[in-house]
């Protein structure tokens, strides 16, 4: 009996040990699985900076020679394929790299692979944008933008050419900043609600200008993008714009102005033209903007006044002169099944100099355009634009140059 009892006791002890070991192993296994899952969740939540980079872009192919009545009519600052020597033309080929590097840093880099430094040299690569945004609040309502970016002057200047209806920006405001960009530091502020509205106006196809704040101000070189600074006096700019809703309509009004001193590059001067000894001229402008977004009817209008360098053929000299001009554009947003069709008309006028061109050319422009944008697919757009143009543009080598003509302009755009 003692032997049997001893065997039972030993058996019970053995079974108990097995039970406790199995329980411990299960507990350890459960802890290991839990730790493994936690590590996976942590890795998923802690994305690397390069996981937040996006790549997108667009390209535009144009042809401007249909129904052309005057091959001597041109537009150096807008489209270099106007007139003589023009043909099929890659207007833009841009790839955009951007990303949010943490909560407080955003970067944006945009090269253009179809830049034309002069009219007979095409498809060079050039930096358009290269900047970082630094914000110090949780909602990113207060931002500093550092680097080369668009100068906040004019609604149409800030509006991406990817979204713009007319094939070129107006001469009046675009003559302020060639390529719309310069290197500097800008401060932007907009409440979170308005920032979302700015983004929605672009994303929804309503031809918004993007988020450049309700209030923006800053300093920049003043010689424009990809050009050396030629004095120690940066330009100063300030802009205020405010979008608001009235029932189903959205209206945006804005005002902006800048001042500084522009130095004429020696490479842009003809031999014999008279200039100030230091080549330096005041560069001052103020502009008003109005936008009724196309829901479905829309109006876009801007006008600016200022002073800047301009060629005077009566004295063969570049002088500080007054300038003024603007434009008005009307459009209608039609949705036909899955297609979008936006017919538009635009009139522009400008009287003044273009400081970036040879001898600060003197201009008087009166153009009328009628056309449409057709979006049959999400990634493809087609624009037809018939232009009636009257342009006086004079410099030292061409003191009497008035060109008038008409042309049908076509553009295919791929968005990716």
Indicate the topology.
Layout: H1 2-45, E1 53-66, E2 89-100, E3 105-115, E4 124-135, E5 142-150, H2 155-158, H3 171-174, E6 181-189, H4 192-203, E7 215-220, E8 235-246, E9 249-263, E10 280-292, E11 297-312, E12 317-332, E13 334-336, E14 339-353, E15 362-377, E16 380-394, E17 402-415
Antiparallel strand pairs: 1-2, 1-17, 2-3, 3-4, 4-5, 5-6, 6-7, 7-8, 8-9, 9-10, 10-11, 11-12, 12-14, 13-14, 14-15, 15-16, 16-17
Brief rundown of the structure:
The protein is α+β, with helices and mostly antiparallel strands and 416 residues long.
Structure description:
With 416 residues, the protein is an alpha+beta fold. The protein has one domain: Porin. 15% of the residues lie in helices and 50% in strands. The protein is built from four helices and 17 strands. It has a 16-stranded antiparallel barrel with strand order 1-2-3-4-5-6-7-8-9-10-11-12-14-15-16-17. The longest helix is centred in the N-terminal third of the chain and has 44 residues, at 2-45. It is globular and about 125 Å long. It starts with a helix and ends with a strand. The model has no long low-confidence stretch (mean pLDDT 91).
Biggest sheet overview: 16 strands, antiparallel, barrel
How many β-strand stretches?
A: 17
| Shape estimate | globular
- CATH architecture tag: Beta Barrel
CATH domain class name: Mainly Beta
Structural class: alpha+beta
Structural descriptors:
single chain, 17 strands, Porin, 50% strand, 15% helix, 4 helices
């Amino acid at each position: 009996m003692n032997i049997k009892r001893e065997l039972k006791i030993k058996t019970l002890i053995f079974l108990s040990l097995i039970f406790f070991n199995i329980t411990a192993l299960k507990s350890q296994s459960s802890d290991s699985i839990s730790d493994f899952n936690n590590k996976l969740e942590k890795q998923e939540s802690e994305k690397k900076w390069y996981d937040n980079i996006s790549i997108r872009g667009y390209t535009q192919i144009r042809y401007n020679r249909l129904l052309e009545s005057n091959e001597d009519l041109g537009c150096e600052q807008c489209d270099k394929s106007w007139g003589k020597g023009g043909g099929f033309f890659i207007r833009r080929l841009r790839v955009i790299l951007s990303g949010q590097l943490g909560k407080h840093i955003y970067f944006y880099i945009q090269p253009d692979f179809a830049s034309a430094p002069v009219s007979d040299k095409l498809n060079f690569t050039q930096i358009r944008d290269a900047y970082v945004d630094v914000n110090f609040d949780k909602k990113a309502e207060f931002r500093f933008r550092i680097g080369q970016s668009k100068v906040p002057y004019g609604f149409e200047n800030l509006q991406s050419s990817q979204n713009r209806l007319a094939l070129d920006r107006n001469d009046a405001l675009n003559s302020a900043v060639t390529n719309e960009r310069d290197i500097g530091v800008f401060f932007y502020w907009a409440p979170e609600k308005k920032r979302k509205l700015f983004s929605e106006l672009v994303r929804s196809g309503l031809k918004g200008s993007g988020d450049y704040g309700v209030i923006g101000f800053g300093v920049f070189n003043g010689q424009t993008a990809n050009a050396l600074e030629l004095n120690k006096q940066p330009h100063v700019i300030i802009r205020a714009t405010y979008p608001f809703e009235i029932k189903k309509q959205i209206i945006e009004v804005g005002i902006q102005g800048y001042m500084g001193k522009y130095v004429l590059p020696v490479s842009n001067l003809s031999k014999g033209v008279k200039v100030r000894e230091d080549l330096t001229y005041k560069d001052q402008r103020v502009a008003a903007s109005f936008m009724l977004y196309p829901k479905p009817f829309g109006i876009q209008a801007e006008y600016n006044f200022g002073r800047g360098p301009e060629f005077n053929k009566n004295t063969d000299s570049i002088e500080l002169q007054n300038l003024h001009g603007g434009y008005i554009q009307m459009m209608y947003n039609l949705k036909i099944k899955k297609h979008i069709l936006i017919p538009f008309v635009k009139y522009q006028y400008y009287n003044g100099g273009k400081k970036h061109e040879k001898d600060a050319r003197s201009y008087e422009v009166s153009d009328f355009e009628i056309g449409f944008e057709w979006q049959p697919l999400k990634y493809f757009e087609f624009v037809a634009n018939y232009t009636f143009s009257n342009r006086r543009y004079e410099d030292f080598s061409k003191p009497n140059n008035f060109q008038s003509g008409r042309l049908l302009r076509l553009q295919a755009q791929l968005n990716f």
